[in-house]
Each structure stands twice: as structure tokens, then as C-alpha cells.
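Researcher: Re-running this chain for the archive, since the previous output was lost when a drive failed. Same request as before.
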Amino acid sequence: MSDATTLLEFRRLLVEQDLTRKLFDEVGISLCERGLLMKEDTLVDATIIEAPPSTKNAERSRDPEMHQTKKGREWHFGMKTHIGVDAESGLVHSLVGTAGNVSDVSQAYALLHGHEQETFSDAGYAGVDKRDELRAKPVEWRVAARAERSRRCAELRWRTC
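Model: Regenerated C-alpha cells:
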């Protein structure tokens, strides 16, 4: 099993050789040729990829491309992978890697393949329909309500019943 350092070294090699986009594009082309991609609906989300926060390495520093981010009540150090997935097949069609402190909604435009009618996301994409880079795209955004708002609404309904 690979440790975090091995994965980070592999990621750097892919970036240095400019292979990340090339590999991803080749997989996408192969899936399209087989008729497995690009339907009408997309799911978008981001996930945090933890990186070692330690400075006990040869350079005595943290990876400059990694940053802190808060999810819920916990802090994480690393990067984010923003992903666009075909809602019908579950196949990934878009992928963007950023520092951990980059907001989910700021990468929404890069997660669309261009033929969507509807896009589904979690509350991290609230306000996506108001972003300038997405105004011209005829996509219906379905964004989940924030958990705390859902709990408040449930409590209010409980009291009124």
C-alpha cells in the first residue's frame, strides 16, 4: 500500500510531465467512443485529499501547493479534487485539482461537459447560478440545502405539528 508521500511524488511527476490532462482526456475519448459518456445530467462535488502537514522533511517545509481548509468543524491540510460525474452512468467526465482552500463553487464551471440539462450538487455550490462564468449556460442547478438549515426547518415543522 502506498503512503501519502508516494502519492504526492506521483502527482508531482504527472504535473511535471504535463500528463494529468493528457491521461484524463484519453480516458474521456475512449469512453465517448464506446458510447458511455455525456448524458443530460451531471453530479458535481469536491473531496479533500489529505497531505502530510509535517515540516520534518529534507526541505523542512510544507508542500506549497497544499493549504488548510475547514470542513464542518474540522481542519484539514491538503488539496481538493473537484469532480463532475455523469448522473446516469456514474462515470467521471470532469476533474480539477486545486489547493484545499479553494471554494467548491468557484470550480463549478470546469465540471460541466456542456450538454447538461440539470446539475446536482451539495450545499457547497450555493449561489452557483449567480456566478458570471455560468450565466450563459442553460443548466438547471439543483443544490442541496445546508444541513443546519434542514435541521432548523425540521424542528419548526415538528413544533407546528
